[in-house]
Amino acid sequence: MRGSYESLVTAQQQFYRESRFADVWVSLVRAPEGLRVSLESIEGVDAADTRVTFFATLDLDDSGIPAQGRFISLPEIGRPALNDIMLRQGRYIAVGAIDEVIVSENFASARNYAPGDSIRVVINGRSRDLDIVGIAISPEHTYAVPPGALYPEDERYGIFWASREALGPAFNMDGAFNEAFVTLTPDANIDAVIESIDALLRPYGGLGAYPRSDQPSHLILQAELDQNRVTGAIIPIIFLGVAVFLLYLVLGRLISTQRGEIAVLKAFGYSDWEVGGHFLMFAVVAVLLGGFIGLVGGIQLGDAYIGMYAQYFKLPNLEYLPSAGLLFFAFISCVLGAFGGAIAAVRRAVLLPPAEAMRPEAPARFEPGIIEKLGVGKLLGATGRMVLRNVTRKPVQGFFSSLGIALSVAILTVGFFMFDSVNHMMDLQFRHIQREDLALTFREILPDTVRYDLANLQGVSRVETYRMVPARLRFGHREDEVVIQGMELNAELRRIINADNREVPVPATGVVLSAMLADRLMVSTGDELIVEMLEGKRRTAKLLVSGVIEDFLGVSAYMNKQALWQLSGEANVISGAFLAVDELSLDDIHRQLKQIPAVTGVASPATMLQSFEEQLAQGILIAAGFLLGFACIIAVGVIYNGARISLSERGRELASLRVMGFHRSEVAWLLLGEQGAITLLAIPLGWLIGYSLSYAIATGLQTDIYRIPFVTEPRTYLLSAVLIVLAAIASGWVVRRRLDRIDLVEVLKTRE
Asked: 587, 603, 619: which is the final residue of a domain?
């Protein structure tokens, strides 16, 4: 996992460097091109570039949600000074060509477009046929998300690059721009640069500059990298710890069965180092073989992991190339860890005096233990009491055996926890919060009366409008930039829901913040924020925090729409709308929406849910599946080896019972019942450890994009227990077959 993280970071940094990825962006209404020089003259700015960008509807020959495209201008001559694109197929746009476009790779792949194809686009209500001359990727769109959506919809959203000469006249941008970006000098103060850019572009409708850390694609990619770094640190430690413990457990039990051999070796003059080295060779062989298999398997898994990332993040030169240092470190860590566990076990053999080792190990006192004295023994038969006493007469050995199985239960619990958390997050977001059928995003703010036009569309049963305004929130010396969403009172289609599935009413006044945003600002309910609007009249006012909610997607701030209008000084304008529609009328509504130039985005929670399941959930569930498989292997290994070693340790005892008249089933019950009791004792301990690990993982995977909820369903604990019991049954069946074939004479002749 660490190798995957390093490969992703290397590919990201190389792409950013080669494309001259910007450090600061700003969107605005319209500014003359001459301001580019002023941008470059700001202290701390190394280079600046401008462009024209807008959204348009794609007139595709299919029904369903209207497809959208973001169009971005390219210079007439030469390549962009910043944020350059990388061609994957085809060619660059010819000089003077106004009907040629380059298409993003994700969209082209999803739609099977290739250079030479054409696509129809609706721009300001007019249809135009554009020729596709190239396929490209961009550092700004390694993860392309359409307006109003949370996850990519490659079949419905694409990035298009066209010449400035073609895009400028389409939206009255001749000699002007509506987006700018800059790179900074190494010693630049980014906050000061952003403040200067805002001051320069505020008269031209500037919406507030933001750094690379807030650029949507980079933000999502960086969040994924941060998550990968956390899991790459936690999970290997867990696995290594389990491996070390298991090696100690198995080797320690093996040494206890070879006391006589140790005594003979020492009696013949072998030193402690030689005897210890003999047993360490068991660990050496296991470590070298396991290390080799682990390196080969790790490289294969890492390559597959990177292949999965390549489907969603378009980065050039993305391949799994673990460094020699990482491979060496991984191997040495495993070797040192394994030898640490082995040495702890071998120490028992080294320190054992020859005279003591020649005597059989003193049997533990076969007397009623604490559990039996509490009255449990009365509920058991003779065989059951023998099993109970065998467990309690070697409490240390029993505890460590139980701990090994408990670790398997813990890993299973963590794996199922990931399933639970993803399912809970999807259910809360897409079935309780986003209850609309369609979410519309407008190209520019429109009067709220548009709701009546939307309500008159055939099949629309309910319309709720919303306003979104970028703002800077301050509390003391802390500040953060967010988008405040103004919602309707008593909204039904888009609601504010807490993590416990409790609806939070939209306050008449004040603002409701997500818990992550509240933590950043260190505010709580009842505190007063200073709000600086970054759009419109850019008013600054005080705003009461009416509530704080736990949510899982994004960093949010919610207000009553009317209160937001009053705060920003706007006259009843909206940014979009939520629609409830008749399912039978969806196709007709989609066709009508394609003809409305103001609509730049149409999102469907059902489509977003599908995208979520295919992307974010896939990565999490693959990791969960890996954990489940690993846990089952550990469980079988611990239980089977424990039973096998117990059979070796107690072979003479069990054979004696057979000779005395015990049936095979009774003897098997004595042996396997002990392992069953240890397994049952391990399950609650494993649940406790798994609960703690799940909480640690949920806490460590907190990002601005999403948070993993700490949710464990009762079935999680039930399934983890059932799998462990099944592993115990399978291991017991194998050991039972060996027990049935035991040679009583040969066993009884031992130690005579």
From this structure: 603
At residue 97, the 3 state secondary structure works out as coil
With H, G, I as helix, E, B as strand and everything else as coil, classify residue 706: strand
Task: Check whether residue 221 and residue 150 sit in a common domain.
Answer: no
Partners of 70 in the β-ladder: 55, 159
- Residue 313 has a CB neighbour count (10 Å cut-off) of 22
Q: Do 477 and 587 fall into the same domain? A: yes
**Does 77 fall in a domain?**
yes
Lowest mean pLDDT among 100-109, 475-484, 595-604, 742-751: 742-751
Query: Do 512 and 403 belong to one domain?
Result: no
At residue 411, the pLDDT reads: 81
**Most confident among 162-171, 326-335, 382-391 (mean pLDDT):** 162-171
How many angstroms separate the Cα of 432 from the Cα of each of 153, 198, 386, 494?
A: 22, 38, 55, 8
**Is 316 found in the same domain as 300?**
yes
Q: Are 298 and 3 in contact (CB under 8 A)?
A: yes
Strand 53-58 versus strand 67-74 pairing type: antiparallel
- From CA 467, how far away is CA 464, in angstroms rounded? 11
Say if strands 478-487 and 557-560 run parallel, antiparallel, or are unpaired: parallel
- Same domain? For 725 and 643 the reply is yes
CB 137 within 8 A of CB 104: yes
- How wide is the angle at C-alpha 209 spanned by C-alphas 173 and 176, nearest 5°? 15
Q: Read off the pLDDT of each residue in 249-260 and give the average, rounded to a whole number.
A: 67
Per the domain annotation, does 390 fall within a domain? no
Name the residue among 553, 549, 489 with its Cα closest to residue 149.
Answer: 553
Domain range for 220: 215-362
Element (H or E) spanning 290, and its range? helix 272-312
Q: How many residues does the chain have?
A: 752
Burial of residue 611 (CB within 10 Å: 0-12, 13-18, 19+) is buried
Compute the distance between CA of residue 299 and CA of residue 280 in angstroms, rounded to an integer: 28
- Comparing C-alpha atoms, which of 248, 256, 245 is closest to residue 405? 245
Assess contact for 406 and 685: CB atoms under 8 A: yes
Specify whether the CB–CB gap between 419 and 621 falls below 8 A: yes
Last residue of some domain: 578, 603, 628? 603
What strands, in cross-sheet order, belong to the sheet with 210-211?
A: 45-51, 176-184, 24-32, 210-211
Give the SS3 label for residue 697: helix
Mean pLDDT of the chain: 78
SS3 530: strand
For residue 377, pLDDT beyond 60: no
Please tell me which residue, 615 or 318, carries the higher pLDDT value.
Answer: 318
559 and 485 in contact (C-beta within 8 Å)? yes
Q: What's the pTM?
A: 0.69
pLDDT for position 234: 67
Task: Give domain status of residue 643, yes or no.
Answer: yes
Same domain, 141 and 234: no
Q: What is the pLDDT of residue 752?
A: 44
Question: Which residue from 91, 99, 95 is spatially nearest to 75, judged by alpha carbons?
Answer: 95
pLDDT of 347 over the 80 cut: no
The mean per-residue pLDDT over the stretch 617-631 comes to: 66
Instruction: Clarify whether residues 31 and 64 are in a common domain.
Output: yes
Distance CA 250, CA 237 (A): 20
Pairing relationship of beta strands 118-123 and 53-58 according to DSSP bridges: antiparallel
pLDDT at 149: 65
Q: How far apart are CA 749 and CA 752, in angstroms?
A: 6
- Predicted confidence (pLDDT) at residue 36 exceeds the cutoff of 70: yes
Residue 10 lies in a domain: no
Cα–Cα distance, 478 to 640 (Å, whole number): 57
Q: What is the number of domains present in the chain?
A: 4
Range 697-703 average pLDDT: 73
Average pLDDT over residues 395-423: 78
Give yes or no: residues 69 and 198 share one domain.
yes
Q: Do 209 and 180 touch, CB atoms closer than 8 A?
A: no
Cα gap 97→164, rounded to integer Å: 10
